[in-house]
Amino acid sequence: MSIPPASPFYPQTQRRPRREWPLWARGAVIGLAVVGLGAAAYLEGSRSGRWGAPAERKAAAAKLTGVPRAFGAWTSQDIPLDEKVVRVAEADGYVQRNYRNGKTGADVTVLLLCGPSGPIGAHTPEYCYAGNGYAVAGAPEKRTVAVGATGASYWSARFERQSPPGDPLRVCWMWGTDGDWEAADNPRLGLKTAMYKLYVVRGEPVAPRDGATDPVHEFLTEFLPEVKKALGVPPALN
Q1: What's the mean pLDDT in 22-48?
Q2: Structural domain boundaries of the chain?
Q3: What predicted TM-score, i.e. pTM, was given to this entire model?
């Protein structure tokens, strides 16, 4: 490509001589680049579990043992979770129980997971339940529940089984840290070493009655303050 003659519209500039960096400066730049890449790789590896669960995540998972099996009128039975499911979820720990209210007879199934923010934030019911023949009926609804001074929010959706046909489910889910919960649009944002995810599921009538109380909402109103007591304590890192 030819360079047009110098003019007010095509200013012709001269090339500046290339600056040679001394060897010590080149070495410093390369060293900083390697350190930066190494730090980024270590951070991502630590968060994803590539190097094993870091101490913070292990401590966060250990706090799950404090989640009560009984409170108020609610009692529960533990439900073992298949190890394959635990691996797919990339969870460091979990609690899965069926809670039943001795006064009202309402029952819900709870799954509380702890793990790295990437995988824990990625798995949502729309994809998890699809593998079991369920499809979400309508858009998930964001709901709130009064917990402490700030409250909590969660997603709620009705899932209907298409093949084979089955009873519909009410599925509620939320993410949190230290017992504070949110129906986040993108829960993986932020550099969180450990994250919790809570599912609450119950069977729902094919045609729910107008004005009927929501057992899941009533359960969360009592359950979340108890969970806060367990997960809100400072972790023991040793």
Answers
A1: 39
A2: 21-52, 55-231
A3: 0.74
